[in-house]
Inverse folding.
């Protein structure tokens, strides 16, 4: 076969700062996050939209502890943290 389908990989999404409440996730456990199976190389933006997130530019994202953009491609065992910005002191 000339073209192969990308492999499926597991990623974990962790939601902070009340994002889980915004998405009406009732049984969300922040220590475990949400495990999803996606195609290898899927962009972060597509996964977040699949979760129901709409205002993507309003949050900060981290991939395995490093700052990440919405166009970042995801790989097996990646952990994504989504955080709303906050202010104060």
């Amino acid at each position: 076969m000339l073209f192969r389908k990308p492999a499926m990989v597991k990623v974990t999404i962790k939601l902070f700062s009340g994002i889980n409440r915004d998405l009406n996730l009732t049984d969300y456990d922040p220590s475990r996050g949400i495990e999803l199976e996606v195609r290898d190389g899927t962009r972060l933006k597509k996964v977040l939209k699949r979760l129901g997130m709409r205002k993507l530019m309003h949050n900060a994202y981290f991939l395995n502890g490093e700052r990440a953009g919405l166009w970042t491609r995801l790989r097996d065992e990646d952990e994504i943290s989504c955080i709303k910005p906050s202010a104060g002191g």
About this structure: The mean pLDDT is 91.
